[in-house]
Amino acid sequence: MSDKEDIALIAHLMRRAGFGASREELEDRAAKGYEATVEELLYPEEQPPIDDDILYRFLPGYEGALGPPINQAEWVYRMVNTQRPLEEKLALFWHQLFATGNSKVDNPPEITQQIAMFRRQALGSFRDLLVELAKNPAMIWWLDNNGNHNGAINENWGRELLELFSMGVGNYSEDDIKDASRAFTGWTIEPKIPRNPLGRFYWNFEYRPEDHDDGEKNFLGHAGRFNGEDIVDIVVKQPATAQFLARHLYSFFVADEAQVPSWNINPPNDPDAIDQLVAAYDESEGSLRSMLRLLFNSDFFKNARFARVKSPAELVVSTVRMAGNYQGPRPGLTMLAMECNWQGQELLNPPSVESWHTGGEWIDGGALVRRVNFAAGLMGDTSLPGIRAIIAGLRERGVTAPEEFVDACLDLVGPLEFSEATRSELLDQATEDGGLNWDTVEDSEKSEQKIGVMLALIGASRDFQFA
């Protein structure tokens, strides 16, 4: 068995670069080594994809879905069962950064196609990702670029490309927005006939040269007869873009930052970490794989354990994975996806182009109650395979005394680092219950009940809300 600290570090990596891992997986990865695990995560294409044939047989209405629940269920299932955890985690990251909502697009399969594009582009160059985003039909519809015409520009896409997707407020002018928008005229969607009442056709990107403004443009100090890709080429070379992307990666993978709209007045929590990520961006010409390799191997990442509030998707998926539930399609999958909605994160339908507010705003009053009830209910179910494995681990260790009972539970669930106050409350419960006893069948059954109660309390704790 690997050293306890090695296990804890790998567990930290898998919480951030994925959605957690079982104890068996943690020990296997710790035996490979931390840096080898990072490299494996950074090349997801070397791992097998999920068997989605069985999933689509279980969701026969998926292709023609008129509402998002079936498509949400498909994505949550992928997050739970993927052997490519970083690929799926990055799809969630880009969905949060490049927020596109079904409330306007009204075509759930098309937004799911956008998520698939995020998987394909997740670890390539930021430049290529932005070009694919600009050509993505769901994004074109979401930000009205299908209404951006030569002689009658729509500035929505041009503005959000600069403000929310690449550079941030204060790093461009209104004239830059106008000329960027002119450059993207003619980037639109090939029209499709709706197939209601059976669903929607997939859309295709279409470039219409006759609708493109081919005149001279001035953008961020550059002049030329720019098209959309020229604008992206200029954007990705701006120092502000490297800073903006670095801060987003830090906030998502390392520690919660202030909300994005305040970044122009609130400096980063760790300027040195941002500088390191910016340097990786510059040296690799915007390679996302290079930036994440630096991030995961850095001391600032390794030392930032439990410094982020789990998003609803992270809480739901990581708890389900730990409990060993939904390892195959079965009834309740759509309701599992809806659980993210009820906790405040409606996948495929963020509230606006500004996306969700993260960090402490995930755990406001109503959402916190929902999170606690979900985690406690799942972790207290001693019939689930992952919970059975924890029970077996406690029994194998011969755990009996209250203090070792609490510490072993925290170790097998995480390892988790709980505050002394929370640990004391758990110890009070374990002491009141009288510890564990495995001598007889009846004693073992009572011990399993006590374990279920303890795991439910862990899931209901404040500390469990952090990754």
What does this structure look like?
With 467 residues, the protein is an all-alpha fold. The chain has a domain at 385-465. It is built from 24 helices and 4 strands. The strands form 2 sheets. The chain has a two-stranded antiparallel sheet. A two-stranded antiparallel sheet has the order 3-4. A hairpin with a 2-residue loop joins strand 3 and strand 4 (222-224). The chain is elongated and about 85 Å long.
Kindly list the characteristics that best describe this protein.
single chain, 467 residues, mainly alpha, two-stranded antiparallel ribbon, 24 helices, 3% strand, elongated
Kindly report the spatial arrangement of strands forming the biggest sheet: 1-2
Residue stretches low in confidence (pLDDT < 50, at least 5 long) are: none
Q: What's the average pLDDT?
A: 95
Which structural class best describes the helix and strand composition? mainly alpha
**Gyration radius, rounded:** 24 Å
How far the N terminus sits from the C terminus, by CA atoms, comes to: 24 Å
Helicity range of the residues?
A: 55-70%
Number of strands: 4
Which shape, going by the Cα principal axes?
Answer: elongated
Continuous helix count: 24
Q: Give the percentage of residues in beta strands.
A: under 5%
What order do the SSEs take from the amino end to the carboxyl end, as H and E?
Answer: HHHHHHHHHHHHEEEEHHHHHHHHHHHH
- What summary fits the major beta sheet? 2 strands, antiparallel
Indicate the topology:
Layout: H1 4-17, H2 23-32, H3 34-42, H4 52-58, H5 69-81, H6 85-97, H7 102-105, H8 108-121, H9 126-135, H10 137-142, H11 156-163, H12 174-183, E1 187-190, E2 204-207, E3 217-219, E4 222-224, H13 228-235, H14 239-253, H15 271-284, H16 288-297, H17 299-302, H18 312-323, H19 333-342, H20 365-379, H21 385-396, H22 402-413, H23 420-433, H24 441-460
Pfam families: DUF1800
Organism: marine metagenome
Protein name: DUF1800 domain-containing protein
